[in-house]
Amino acid sequence: MDYSELKIPKHLAIIVDGNGRWAKERGLSRLKGHDAGFDNLKKIGEYALKRGVEVLSLYVFSTENFKREEKEVSHLMDLFLLMFKKDKNYFMRNNIKVLFSGRNEPLPKNVIKARDELVELTKNNTGGIINFCMNYGGRAEIIDAVKKINADNIDINNLDEKTFSKYLYNDLPDVDLMIRTSGELRLSNFLLWQNSYAEFYFPEVKFPDFSEKDFDEAILVYNKRDRRFGGHSKK
Ligand code: IPE
Ligand code: IPE
Ligand code: MG
């Protein structure tokens, strides 16, 4: 595909969904589905940034996902540790700066430590940003921003959207394209503020099978959209 002609979303957000169903279809445990999903995160992360995406937000664990069985939650925590510690060379080799969005509580201490160390290690990298949304909830993010604004004694009467954005977990550009794999048609509390004017794309493919070709297809679909932001069509 000739990418020079295509608009690439500056901020791409992906809800990496369908790991459990992917495994079930193959007679495997849900945990194996997460293993495959995590392997694919690295492949797609590298590819998206190579294609010119500047910020890639990946929804890898919601605040609500703590409702799952203890065995599944602890397996996911182990996968985070593997990725943030054992795979840290992946981020360095690809010059990726890592950010996180989400609450600390009730994440295990070792995950918080590995997370913070990875942020510190990669802070000067310039090859694009991966923002892991882990123990993330969009409503929690907005509530947490309000609390920080209050603590800073900001004059609420003069509060504008630009200032509010600075109090979110990270001050990132708005999402341009939001992809949710596995055919589910909902946001599930993902980047509520940042997705205001995002284009949405819902491929049927489950995340472990979401390929570079599927990524390219998403970019093509995005290029056919007419983004109006409430104004007139430019097409
Ligand atoms: C998404 O896959 C990954 C995480 C929540 C970490 P799911 O585990 O939600 O997979 P399905 O939706 O049950 O297939
Ligand atoms: C959203 O997926 C969270 C992540 C993919 C990390 P879920 O699978 O948890 O969402 P619901 O429960 O189907 O809405
Ligand atoms: Mg799911």
Architecture overview:
By secondary structure, this protein is of the alpha/beta class. The protein has one domain (11-137, 174-221): Decaprenyl diphosphate synthase-like (Undecaprenyl pyrophosphate synthetase), CATH 3.40.1180. The chain has eight helices and six strands, in the order βααβααβαβααββα. It has a six-stranded parallel beta sheet with strand order 3-4-2-1-5-6, sandwiched between helices. The longest helix has 21 residues, at 30-50. It is globular. The chain starts with 10 loop residues before the first strand and ends in an 11-residue tail after the last helix. It binds 3-methylbut-3-enyl trihydrogen diphosphate (2 copies) and magnesium ion. One 3-methylbut-3-enyl trihydrogen diphosphate binds at residues 16-21, 37, 60-61, 65, 76, 182.
Topology:
Elements: E1 11-15, H1 19-25, H2 30-50, E2 55-62, H3 70-86, H4 88-93, E3 97-101, H5 109-121, E4 129-136, H6 138-151, H7 161-166, E5 177-180, E6 199-201, H8 212-224
Parallel strand pairs: 1-2, 1-5, 2-4, 3-4, 5-6
Helix pairs in contact: 1-2, 2-3, 3-5
One 3-methylbut-3-enyl trihydrogen diphosphate (IPE) binds next to helix 1 and strand 2.
Attribute tags:
6-stranded parallel sheet; binds magnesium ion; 235 residues; alpha/beta; globular; 8 helices; 41% helix; Undecaprenyl pyrophosphate synthetase; 6 strands; single chain; binds 3-methylbut-3-enyl trihydrogen diphosphate
